[in-house]
Design goal:
By secondary structure, the protein is of the alpha+beta class. The chain has helices spanning 13-24, 59-68, 83-93, 97-105, 160-168, 171-174, 178-191, 193-212, 218-247, 255-335, 350-371; strands at residues 40-48, 51-54, 72-79, 111-115, 118-129, 134-145, 148-153. Helix 7 packs parallel to helix 10, helix 8 runs parallel beside helix 10 (255-335) and helix 9 (218-247) runs antiparallel to helix 10 (255-335). The protein is rod-shaped. Residues 1-37 have low confidence and may be disordered.
Length: 375
């Protein structure tokens, strides 16, 4: 099994792999950031007819071993190498300056370029962090040439050690040359997309619950997830053209390998289609969330308007009664002033007149406010 799929050529390849899986079980999980190498040369091996016959400790020893053995293939794995290591590889394998510059700077989109007899492939691997519920992207550069494979990793994914272990158990596949290694790595990268798709799908389900539950943080999470989906699209979609070119024979792979490459293309197509669906779904969720937020705001505005109207009605009643009660107070205040020379003070019907005046004014005000609906 390479990258999670089983080879089944007619030469017993699948049967040998079944025996290996029965003996050793499942491969170990990918390295976590805490156990990943700190940088430099991770592994270097020289293979002859699909079998590892040398494990040089450094690049110079690898070059020498490769030169001494005709028909051998070197597989050199680097993790965030320094300039000296890249320069040494470029000098030994005559790598193109532009490809070397891309491998040093990273931040490239997935692509396939040919420089003479050397293929330069850029891949974008992805892994889902369950603790943070985020997608982590990393970059992988490959130099594929006659008798050598150089992998330059700029992140924790993919787990190339697992790819190497699996390929070393299948000498007949590894004997097909650097193109078989390229296929195995592509297969591992594409298989690594499956947990990411599952994680994103779970996040979208949670977001739908947040949106319809009225969570105010839903919009922020939708935006963050949409950005991850877009980055995932940028990692996976360009890889379709890379696989298409390889399946058409651009890498010099034989017909059997090209069949496997087409199988990887089918799996990647499914991933791309699902990710495209995620993006459209998130856009719809964002629209629904905006609609729900707008409806909630309208409900709040209606509630505030109703409360304001109710308060206004109460204020009208209070003001009306205050005006009614103010009239007798005003009359009583005028006639209660301690002046000697005032009209009606010595009038016999003055008291009765004041009371009637109060009732008349109050009654008039009451009828006016009642007609206006204030009371």
């Amino acid at each position: 099994m390479v990258g999670g799929r089983r080879f089944r050529p007619g030469d017993g390849f699948g049967r040998q792999l079944d025996e290996y899986e029965t003996r050793v079980g499942e491969p170990p999980p990918p390295q976590s950031p805490a156990t990943a190498p700190q940088g430099g040369l991770v592994d270097s091996a020289v293979y002859l007819r699909g079998h590892r016959f040398a494990s040089p400790p450094g690049l110079a020893e690898t070059y020498r071993c490769l030169q001494e053995q005709d028909g051998a293939m070197a597989w050199i794995g680097l993790y965030r190498p320094d300039i000296d290591q890249i320069t040494s590889l470029a000098r030994e394998f005559r790598l193109h300056d532009l490809a070397v510059e891309d491998a040093i700077n990273a931040h490239q989109r997935p692509k396939l370029e040919r420089y003479g007899h050397t293929l330069f492939v850029v891949l974008r691997a992805a892994r889902y962090d369950d603790l943070r519920e985020e997608v982590e992207f990393s970059e992988l550069h490959l130099f594929i040439g006659p008798g050598f494979v150089v992998t330059v990793r700029h992140g924790e994914a993919p787990d190339l050690a697992a790819v190497r272990r699996r390929m070393e158990t299948e000498a007949q596949m590894l004997a097909r040359g650097p193109e078989a290694v390229l296929y195995a790595i592509l297969d591992q990268v594409v298989d690594g997309y499956a947990p990411v798709v599952a994680g994103l799908e779970n996040d979208i389900d949670e977001i739908e619950t947040q949106v319809f539950g009225g969570d105010p943080n839903a919009s922020r999470r939708i935006y963050g997830l949409s950005r991850e989906v877009i980055q995932f699209q940028r990692a996976a979609r360009p890889l379709l053209s890379v696989l298409g070119a390889l399946a058409d024979g651009s890498a010099g792979a034989d017909e059997e390998l090209r069949r496997y490459l087409r199988d990887v293309t089918d799996h990647l197509t499914q991933v791309v289609e699902r990710v495209d669906g995620f993006r459209h779904l998130l856009q719809n969720i964002l629209t629904v969330n905006a609609t729900l937020v707008s409806q909630q705001q309208n409900e709040e505005m209606r509630s505030l308007t109703a409360a304001s109207y109710s308060q206004n009605e109460e204020l009208k009643k209070v003001s009306s009664w205050a005006a009614i009660l103010f009239a007798p107070t005003l009359i009583g205040t005028v006639y209660g002033m301690n002046f000697v020379h005032m009209p009606e003070l010595n009038w016999r019907f003055g008291y009765l007149f004041a009371l009637l005046l109060m009732l008349l004014v109050c009654g008039t005000l009451y009828l006016i406010f009642k007609r206006r609906g204030w009371l």
